[in-house]
UniProtKB/TrEMBL annotation:
Native species: Cetraspora pellucida
Phylogenetic classification of the source organism: Eukaryota, Fungi, Fungi incertae sedis, Mucoromycota, Glomeromycotina
Source superkingdom: Eukaryota
Location of region: Disordered: 84-107
Protein name: 19302_t:CDS:1
Length: 129
């Protein structure tokens, strides 16, 4: 009988250890879907950030290209580009991207003057011919 009682006590202890381990595993299993959800949100935010960065880089490059074109048009006609303003574009991960753009009114006026000068010089050359 003593032997049976000892076996019963050992089995009860093993049972309580296993019950405790099962409880711990259930808690971990509850956390897994939560972690998956957080990971999914984080991944989606990174994708949006990447697309935003690509768009910002494209905009800055396009603005630089437009500026170069305007400067080359203005410089070919002997004008200088003036009244340039420097602005900062802040993207969503808080890094600054420098962007220098020309005052649109001044550039438009200069391009119009260049266009008029080219037209005047063409008509002048036609008169000489």
């Amino acid at each position: 009988m003593l032997n049976n009682q000892l076996t019963i006590n050992i089995l009860r202890e093993l049972n309580s250890r296993l019950a405790f381990k099962i409880t711990e595993l259930r808690k971990e299993n509850v956390e897994i879907p939560e972690l998956r959800k957080n990971f999914s949100k984080s991944w989606k935010l990174e994708q949006k950030q990447s697309k935003t960065n690509e768009k910002n880089n494209f905009i800055v490059k396009s603005d630089d290209d437009v500026k170069k074109i305007n400067q080359s048009l203005v410089c070919k006609a002997g004008y200088s580009v003036s009244n340039t303003t420097s602005t900062k574009i802040k993207n969503s991960n808080d890094t600054n991207i420098s962007d220098t753009t020309s005052n649109s009114d001044v550039v438009s006026e200069q391009i119009e003057n260049i266009s008029n000068n080219i037209t005047d010089s063409d008509s002048y050359q036609e008169k000489d011919s």
